[in-house]
Amino acid sequence: MSNIQEIINFLKPYTKRAYLVGGASRDILMNKTPTDFDIEIYDIIPDEFEKLMKKLGAKGVGKSFFVYKYKNFDLSLPRTENKIANGHKGFSVKVCQDEKKASQRRDFTMNSIMINIFTNEILDFYSGQNDIKKRIIRHINEVKFQEDSLRVLRAMQFTSRLKFRIASKTIKLCKTIELNDLSIDRIYKEFEKMFYSKYLYYGFYYFIKLDIAKKLFNLEISSTLFCKLSKIYKTNPHPSYFLYHLKNYKKFNFDFFPKHIKRPALMKKKPKKVSNRFLMALSLKYPLKNWSILNNNCCKEWLIENNLYEKKYKPTKIDPKNPKKSILKEIKKKKFDIIN
Question: pTM of the prediction?
């Protein structure tokens, strides 16, 4: 796995307890290859840990939380957290050498699993492996979960990325949590993960089910509209269309939108009018059969007529011996006289 052997060799003289935690251990157990690794390191006091991180060349990215960054690794001491003030930094933090207590601060059971980097031993105190097998997102501790309201949005984006369902008790808990203490940046980071996810329609369901739509955007979405948009999102090839369609179907006001969440840059580039010329340009990259803008543009017949519906457009190759004929063939093929 990546350059993890470097970390193993570096830590071996100092401890026998260092664990892959969070998303890395979850992905490994799902037979996925992690891109980033969180490692919790036990049996080292904070002062010695700081010296070790300097020796390694790691950069402190959350020193008050004992977190350092090295390449694609987040290296940290195990800790417990207690909420003492508003915001995601309003916690008192203590080093904790008990794996079960330390893992209790995590959001969901699937993210609480620990894998010893030296022995590959798995510690699973909250049945995370069982929930992964059942494809369920379940909170660990009700009190701890409520201490960071961002976890409601994390539940939403995880469903969209993993195609997991959320446990009924976790849904009920999420609906009791207010979201008005979250910053724009923190909100957008979670939405961005959903925008680029494989199962956007799953995220859309929990966007409504967890009351995120209502609490953040004051949106009420009928069952009819839900079914229509879910069908679009199921075949959606473009990350910014989640909000694009809310705008079109719910007359969503983008003047209101930036106060709550950053608008994706891709959305800013969306043309006011969807012309045939715009669709022709898109067809060079995508087959337009599943391009969800078609749901708001009466152009299906035009696309089928011009062979842009089932597969992406491939221009006619120019014959060097008769370039004029090739060009005429291309013009006839695509009927450029009707492109506006």
Answer: 0.75
